[in-house]
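Input sequence (191 aa), recorded before submission:
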Amino acid sequence: MFYDRVENQTDSSLMKLVQAGDTSPLALLFERHHVALFRYLLHLTRNPALSEDLVQEVFFRVLKYAKSYDPDLSFPIWLYGMARNAYFDSIRKKRGEIGGDAFGEIKSPEPMPEELISRKEDVMLLQRALLKLPDDKREVLVLSRFHNLRYEDIARILQCEIGTVKVRVYRALKELRENFHELRGEKLYES
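Predicted structure, token format:
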């Protein structure tokens, strides 16, 4: 069976099969990467339905642009770059339609202990603080902190220098911290 034959192959070797005209490995690549890709796009769009559509669009582009894949480049880097392009293309096409809060409030029928409530409030404030960031700052934090990509990989995705990524992450974290404390109603004193 095909699945048994390819399930242990690397993403790069699967893409070589796709480049050769075999579209079967796309299902396995989708299975391996669609959840992380959806989370990445959800952090950018704040819209679950749009994020699902964009994941589909990305894998359509994987097939369409398979010949452009360089086996020396990490497949996830190439995939995230494609996802980023799909996201910005969707913004250009649907200006003003992106919105909504993807982090809806979680309600529990059971009363929660005070400590858990406080932690939940902090998480919600942190999510709101993240949503207040401009797209470019939110994107670099999502890639570095939520997807644990190395700065070198982020630089490839964003097509910039590693030093630029480091500066962007630093500035984004600083603004996130300021947003968080502002939402908590606290004054932030620089030391």
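Checked by second reader. Residues 2-93 form a domain with the Rna Polymerase Sigma Factor; Chain: A fold (CATH 1.10.1740.10).
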